[in-house]
Design brief:
About 50% of the residues lie in helices and about 15% in strands. The chain has 12 helices and 8 strands. Strands 1, 2, 3, 4, 5, 6, 7 and 8 form an 8-stranded antiparallel β-sheet that branches.
Amino acid sequence: MARNASKVDQLAYRPRGRELDVEVFRFTDLRRRVARAEILALYHYTFHTLICVTDGAVTQLVDFQPVTCSTGSLLVLRPGQVHSFGSDEGWDGWMVLFRAEFLPSEAQTTADLLPALGLDRLPDHLSLSTADFHAVGEIITRMQLDAAIDAMAKDVHALLRYQLCALLLRLTILQDRQVGGADARSLAVQRFAKFRRLVEQNYAGWHQVSAYASALGCTEKSLTRAALEATGQSAKSVITARIALEAKRLLVHTDRPIYLIAEGLGFEEATNFAKFFKRETDRAPIGFRRQYKG
């Protein structure tokens, strides 16, 4: 993994050389095998990564925002997100890397297992209680040990797959419990979850709240209420923030000309995109790119 998507696998780690679809290791193991400059780089992931801090404290960067982590912090990083470890000293933790296709699809599993696939229900950062931290740590430790057992590869893959689903389901339950079970099931929260998925799929083409409200079969006012209840932000702000975030990612992790970035994000004119980016980030696109790419 490096500063562009084409080098994203430079930090690949496979214990004992075994090819696995999920990798589990300690951050200190990674630090011993990778140059410091590589660890401190800004990464653009093509896979999911869980980072559970077990010792010390560190401020990491997720989508250009600082996240203060200490023992019990768990980061949930998704494909497309930008991340920096922040420091290679003063902390340690578990890392679990897997690609989305490693999880069972909806057609492969029963309805009872579907919550385990709800990665979109998890925030970027969870703070685990002492008891939950130990429970999560036990699962991850077991996964690392089982990844090295002497068994047929297909059996190891199946075992790790079920363990990963169990881990994600546990994290989903913990998150729902933290926000309140009733709140997690409320109509507004469910509507916002559907809205967020639509934004993720259509932010480059749909810039107006009306398009999402129409797709969801609700009014713009009810959609905005749902967004405010779930995040404290209006629906328009959620859409705008997602467009701005993708612009940041493309500016830093591609060499694409700014006019093509603007076009790809649904702006008819590069000047309109530049005004939008300046308004949302207080930086000009070219200045933002220079800051992170040097």
